[in-house]
Design goal:
The chain is of the alpha/beta class. It is built from 31 helices and 24 strands. β7 and β8 form a beta hairpin. α25 packs antiparallel against α28 and α25 packs parallel to α29. The N and C termini lie far apart (72 Å).
Length: 762
């Protein structure tokens, strides 16, 4: 890297966001030393390289051996910037590397380095199962030459396969599977049943997506509960025929809905003329409110799809199915009822942990993404992570045009199709990014009607994504896709074999068109970044309308009454341009505040979890339970074999600890649902939540001891004693899911909103 390029990259980092990126100077000084090792290492045999690589501990050796292993194993010689990225990861930073710069290989070299520096085992956390398996297999030759073992975990992995995968030096696994394995390990009654080892080191791929966008998502382990009830299916029938603005009103922000007087009367009439607001009908009222939210605010092919007889949520950041995710507070059952499907059981929550809390358990944390600077402050606030902006190997020459803004959505769509048609007629490949599944299918229909063939990539066919994306750069290709963040596949000009590279380059490279601005600039940047990889030519533009939800929700007051525009509806007004940019910044601020407030509630629970986990570990690995029984019941335990007493004491104590923790979580959920009522009395809901949560947890440990003693006193211990003999029955079935962060508030929030509207309307 030349002096001028280094100066340029430092200036760019300074201009991007002063104070949020680290200086790469000390790491850049090591690059010549790494390069000087190339000839020496090239003369080693494979076995000699493997033996020598086992002794590496400093950055120079790690990168030199990693580069040589990649050259032999993959026929790829890492660029200097990839080695910079690896050293940034070894330094515990988040490396921002542009799309197409080789983050997968960078992470492999860093994983090797962390293991050799004694920080292993290493988990490379990915956004989905496909990338976990693909990257592990792809990098396997590199790890083998470096003397390391590698494995991967997917949703279909068995318990034995998971244990074997986690037994490797490096394990590739999606964040949800890793979190679920942790939760299951927290409920084992025999230490040999665990699948994970210590959570030592974590390299997070798509770090901004996992650490920020998904951070507040709770991962849940649930168990069977007898006699589950589902009142929302009846409520779904009650609200089915209600009409917007007649029977209910949707708030301006689109996040809440409430019955009008006319709507309330209609529902009460269907229920036999009851007073829905009477104390005895509170549960029925709650079910109606939930069903109304599902009916009015959640839209098929936007918020969810229906596939194989099930409701599958769509990840708004990636436009793909959010695997095993569901809404809380009965909202999932309400949507299932709306679609005429049987409700899937939620069960009793046995344990839960947010993505953020799980990731925080690792002793060493680092990550990589193409868009980290924009969330640099959040990464520092929530994870104490700094961002290192790695310059591209070849300067980006992509042309990013100004947004094209139209007065109406219809005018925008017409202009969008015309723009695609003009590019397609030249043979230039076009990638169109849409905001949701419904929009992608509507655009595809419009393109087909205009005689433009296209391929659609959305949540309904996300299994085909690798093949679709790989060929998006071929001559004449038009690809319509939901958001590109986390897709994990490069788009090469001329197709996967780059046979038509020169031809496509002469046409201007891949043309990126966004059909609208997302709530996050990072997601838009991820879309832009699919063009212009490794110095390729390319361009990008976004089409926006003043009727887009982003503008309507966050900046309607900034739109001039009569903006300057052309006859075709295209707006040319600086005030409107500012309004669109402002709307996006406001949306980002709202999401940041939701993250912060959610985490404030979660902190105390996570502190309690850690304390409980320490107590459980002692019960599981020592004889502390047996010692308690000997101390309290010396005569009864005197004749019992030490091993038998340990087994009995451990089983009883662990059962009551797990049972009481599940009850504690249920109690805290109820507290949090109702704590906002205390705001009416000018009390801080967060303080009130803590006021309830802390004493409840302090009572937990004495209760565990008390119940353990009571159970032992009531049973007869024999050589073949089993927990079932003492009715210590654990759930016969458990399952895992992620809770989609409910954007509409809790049931009581909705109830308060409905009551407020009712009072003001009478």
């Amino acid at each position: 890297m030349g002096v001028s390029q280094r100066l340029k990259s430092r200036m760019q980092r300074f201009l991007q966001r002063p104070g949020t990126t680290v200086d790469l100077g000390p790491l850049e000084k090591l690059l010549p030393k790494i390069s000087s090792r190339a000839e020496e290492l090239a003369d080693l045999s494979d076995s000699e390289l493997t033996e020598a690589a086992g002794e590496a501990t400093d950055y120079v050796d790690i990168c030199a051996y990693g580069r040589e292993a990649a050259r032999r194993g993959l026929d790829q010689t890492p660029y200097d910037v990839q080695l910079l990225g690896a050293m940034a990861l070894l330094s515990g930073k988040v490396a921002e590397m542009a799309t197409g710069e080789g983050k997968t290989l960078t992470a492999a070299i860093a994983a090797y380095g962390h293991v050799r520096r004694g920080k292993g085992p290493v988990h490379v956390i990915t956004v989905n199962d496909y990338l976990a398996r693909r990257d592990a297999l792809w990098m396997a030759p590199v790890y083998r030459l470096l003397g390391l073992t590698v494995g991967w975990v997917t949703e279909s992995s068995t318990r034995d396969q998971r244990r074997a995968a986690y037994g490797n030096d490096v394990t590739y696994v999606s964040v949800s599977e890793a979190g679920f394995d942790y939760l299951r390990d927290q409920l084992v009654t025999d230490i040999d049943d665990r699948v994970q080892r210590d959570l030592a080191c974590c390299i997070v791929d798509e770090a901004d997506s996992i650490l920020i966008d998904e951070a507040r998502v709770p991962m849940v382990l649930a168990g069977t509960v007898a006699g589950e009830q589902d009142p929302v299916h009846q409520a779904a029938t009650l609200v089915k025929g209600l009409v917007n603005k007649r029977h209910y009103e949707i708030a301006d922000d689109g996040r809440s809905v409430a019955l009008t007087d006319r709507g309330l009367q209609a529902v009460e009439a269907k229920l036999g003329g009851i007073d829905l607001y009477a104390d005895e009908n509170v549960e029925q009222l709650s079910a109606v409110n939930v069903a109304l939210h599902a009916e009015a605010l959640l839209h098929r092919d936007v918020d969810y799809i229906v596939r194989n007889g099930a409701v599958e949520l769509v990840d708004e950041m990636r436009g793909r199915v959010a695997q095993r995710r569901r809404w809380p507070d009965g909202l999932q059952a309400a949507v299932e009822a709306k679609e005429g499907l049987n409700a899937t059981a939620e069960g009793e929550v046995l344990d839960t942990i947010t993505v953020q809390a799980y990731i925080a358990l690792y002793k060493t944390l680092c990550g990589m993404t193409a868009t980290a600077v924009l969330v640099g402050n959040e990464l520092r606030e929530f994870f104490k992570l700094e961002v290192a902006v790695i310059p591209p190997n070849t300067p980006c020459i992509r042309v990013d045009e100004e947004d094209r803004i139209y007065a109406t959505r219809a005018e925008k769509d017409e202009a969008l199709i015309e723009e695609i048609r003009e590019a397609h007629e030249t043979g230039r490949p076009v990638l169109v990014g849409t905001l949701d599944v419904k929009e992608s299918e509507q655009l595809a229909t419009g393109l087909t009607a205009a005689g433009i063939p296209c391929v659609v990539l959305n949540a309904k066919n996300d299994e085909e994504e690798a093949a679709i994306i790989a060929e998006a750069g071929t001559h004449g290709a038009v690809t319509v896709s939901t958001q590109m963040a986390g897709r994990g596949v490069d788009i090469r000009l001329g197709g996967s074999d780059q046979a038509d590279y020169d031809r496509i380059a002469e046409l201007g490279g891949l043309y990126i068109i966004g059909s609208g601005r997302h709530d996050s600039r990072r997601v838009d940047d991820q879309l832009r970044g699919r063009s212009g990889r490794q110095g390729d030519p390319g361009s990008s533009v976004f089409f926006v309308s003043l009727e887009d939800e982003l503008v309507v929700r966050h900046a309607p007051e900034l739109i001039p009454a009569s903006p300057k525009m052309y006859a075709d509806g295209k707006v040319q007004d600086d005030a409107v341009t500012y309004a669109v940019e402002h709307a996006q910044r406001v949306a980002e601020g709202v999401n940041h505040e939701i993250h912060r407030n959610t985490w404030r509630y979660s902190v105390v629970i996570e502190q309690q979890r850690i304390a409980l986990a320490e107590r459980r570990e002692r019960l599981l690995t020592t004889d502390v339970a047996a010692d308690l029984l000997r101390d309290r019941f010396p005569e009864e335990t005197e004749e019992l074999d030490d091993e038998l007493l340990s087994r009995v004491g451990r089983s009883i104590a662990l059962y009551h600890l797990d049972r009481l923790w599940a009850e504690h979580l249920a109690e805290l959920n109820e507290v949090r649902e109702g704590v906002h009522l205390r705001a009416l009395g000018r009390l801080d809901p967060l303080d009130e939540f803590h006021r309830s949560a802390v004493p409840a947890f302090n009572d937990l440990f004495p209760k565990i001891e008390e119940r353990t003693l009571e159970t032992f006193e009531s049973i007869e211990v024999t050589e073949d004693w089993e927990p079932e003999a003492a009715t210590l029955v654990r759930p016969s079935a458990t399952w895992t899911y992620l809770v989609h962060d409910n954007p509409f508030g809790s049931e009581l929030d909705r109830l308060i909103s409905a009551v407020g509207r009712r009072l003001t309307s009478r």
